[in-house]
């Protein structure tokens, strides 16, 4: 395999280090970083070869059960990159960073978000869970602080008191969510990534990310489901 034979240069190593320290990197930043690493290391750079560059890194990460994965922001459809540990697919990979009670609050928040209609959970609903935790009850003030940390660490995103899963969380936890929420978790019919915030076809039940809906129906006079061809009854964004 040519990719396995491709040398891991200092440019690759530098790129990987920055990605790991960032937690998650937006696509345009990753492209800039790719250029910077190649130019600093004086190795061949081509603006359209980022995926090949990442494939080379991934071939060397494979024996370590790690991988750089690409994901799409559910908010605006932009690409993001994160380093994923494939050996630990559970939420327990967060266990080294958070206490048991914090993890329980995270799991319960995740339940609310994934089981909701629109992929969001209100701060009121989350804070109401704080005094029902099995590990031990958590005061609301304390729970607010913990939620703040989850947002800072890019596991959750917050907008006007509504919480959803951050793109980093979706990239890292995709397999965990798909296997633990089999009845409700769905992949986007367009980009085939896990869809938390999505619109769903009332006829056949497929889901699509809002940016994917926007792109797919652009220029169509009458929006119809890509799978069953029935009229798409949701308000297209």
Summarize the structure.
It catalyses: S-ubiquitinyl-[E2 ubiquitin-conjugating enzyme]-L-cysteine + [acceptor protein]-L-lysine = [E2 ubiquitin-conjugating enzyme]-L-cysteine + N(6)-ubiquitinyl-[acceptor protein]-L-lysine. The protein has 237 residues and is of the alpha+beta class.
State the main characteristics.
single chain; 237 residues; alpha+beta; Aspartate Aminotransferase, domain 1; Arc Repressor Mutant, subunit A; Herpes Virus-1; 3 domains; 3-stranded antiparallel beta sheet; 9 helices; 10 strands
- For the biggest β-sheet, the strand order reads 1-3-2
CATH superfamily of the largest domain: Winged helix-like DNA-binding domain superfamily/Winged helix DNA-binding domain
CA-based shape: globular
What about the largest sheet?
3 strands, antiparallel
Count, helices: 9
What is the CATH topology classification name of the largest domain?
Answer: Arc Repressor Mutant, subunit A
CATH arch. level architecture of the largest domain: Orthogonal Bundle
Determine the strand fraction and express it as a percent band: 15-25%
Under CATH at level 1, the class of the largest domain stands as Mainly Alpha
Low-confidence stretches: none
> How many extended strands?
10
